[in-house]
Amino acid sequence: MKLLEHILLEDKIEFIANRMGDRIMQSLRKDAPNSNVTDPREAIRIMSKHTGMKYLQVVCNWYANHDFKIEDLGRIKRELDKFDKIKPHLEPKERDINQYKHSSDVYDIVQRFAASGENTESGKSKARQAKKGSEVYYKDNDLTVIIPKTEEAACYYGKGTRWCTSGEDDNAFDEYNERGPLYIIITKDNEKFQFHFESEQFMDAKDDSVELDDLTKSYPVLKKVFSKQAHKHVIPELMVNPSDEDLLLTVKHDEWNFRKYFEYKPENLKIKAIRINPHALRVAVDKTPGMAKAAVEKLAQAIYYVPSDLQTDEIIKLAINKDIHVINGIPNPTVELIMGAYKHFKERKPRPSQGMSSAKYWLTYVVGQIRNRDVKMEVSQLIRKELGSHEGVR
Question: Which residue from 5, 163, 216, 317 puts its CA 20 to 30 A from 239's CA?
Answer without folding.
Answer: 163
